[in-house]
Design a protein that fits this description.
Length: 322
């Protein structure tokens, strides 16, 4: 096993190095496929194969120009053609874009689309590291980077990449806590992209981007989290209300001290209150009675009561003396 280091840049600018192990068989196979363009198949081709090659050329010449419609092929700008001659990859690698020539009966070719493909990973039921079941889906953007390798190394490169994307999504989410999945989507997407790119490199596939679309929580867990959040908001609201009451009481105490120093300020406050009530066009106006007037009547009543008690006491004394 060989270990390679892959650098990935996260959304916050942090650079992480991920070590990936790759089998030696894959490396040797990739090198062998990449050297196909330099391999001279004619030197090692059997004599029977050479004979068929020459006979095919003669057949094309004899049936010209009708055979030209079968021999000349066209691939688009975004396509490549991988040609097999008698079951062996043809010298020079993939053909295209444009016109290329094949020999009838002995040549077969496969078209490979190099455009970026989008795969919508279906929702995967995952058990997180803290034993919470969530449903996660993602989107994978990938393309064929080496047409020859994608045809020769794997039966169906696209289907294999899609199955690997589902497995990688489940494995990655299974090693994370719930709060990490909800808050570190960019980091998880970057790690998944690196893992998929390393694994599919032997298939001629380049994974360009991985994005986590949605994380669905169970209904009971959603209700519990909503209740917890509501309780936290109510607690904060009560704390804020208590702080407001405390500040208001301090302000009222300071105002009472100012009014106590100047009794006329209370009368001005009464007049201001009357002005505010009259501006609202109410049919009923409550007129506040000055406290000083009440104090005067209370003092008069107390003086009268005290005087009456004194007179009654004097009468009682006079009657007792007689």
């Amino acid at each position: 096993m060989n270990t390679t280091n892959q650098e990935t840049t996260l959304s916050n600018g942090e650079i992480r190095i991920i070590s990936v192990q790759r089998d030696d068989d894959y490396r040797e196979r990739m090198l062998r496929i990449k050297r196909i363009s330099e391999y001279d198949a004619n030197d090692k081709a059997p004599t029977f194969g050479k004979l068929l090659h020459y006979l095919s050329i003669v057949l094309v010449i004899l049936t010209a120009p009708i055979s030209f419609f079968m021999c000349f092929k066209v691939v688009q700008e975004y396509e490549r053609a991988v040609i097999f001659r008698l079951g062996r990859l043809l010298q020079g690698g993939a053909r295209g874009p444009g016109i290329f020539f094949i020999l009838p009966c002995i040549d077969t070719y496969a078209r490979v689309d190099l455009r970026t493909r989008t795969y919508d990973v279906p929702p995967q039921e995952v058990l997180t590291k803290d034993s919470v079941t969530v449903s996660v889906d993602a989107v994978v953007y990938y393309r064929v980077s080496n047409a020859t390798v994608s045809v020769a190394n794997v039966e169906n490169a696209h289907h294999s990449t899609r199955l690997l994307a589902q497995t990688t999504l489940r494995n990655t989410m299974g090693t994370r806590h719930l709060h990490e999945i909800l808050s570190e989507r960019q980091t998880i997407s970057g790690n998944m992209r690196v893992q998929l790119d390393e694994a599919t490199d032997a298939w001629g596939i380049k994974v360009e981007r991985v994005e986590i679309k949605d994380v669905r929580l169970p209904v009971q867990l959603q209700r519990a989290m909503a209740a917890e959040a509501e309780a936290a908001r109510e607690a904060r609201a009560k704390v804020i209300a208590a702080e407001g009451e405390q500040k208001a009481s301090r302000a009222l105490r300071e105002a009472s001290e100012v009014i106590g120093d100047s009794p006329a300020a209370l009368q001005l406050r009464y007049l201001q209150t009357l002005n505010t009530i009259s501006a609202e066009k109410n049919s009923t106006i409550v007129f506040p009675l000055p406290i000083d007037l009440l104090t005067y009547f209370m003092k008069t009543h107390e003086a009268a009561t005290l005087f009456g008690n004194n007179n009654q006491q004097q009468l009682s004394d006079m009657q007792s003396s007689m």
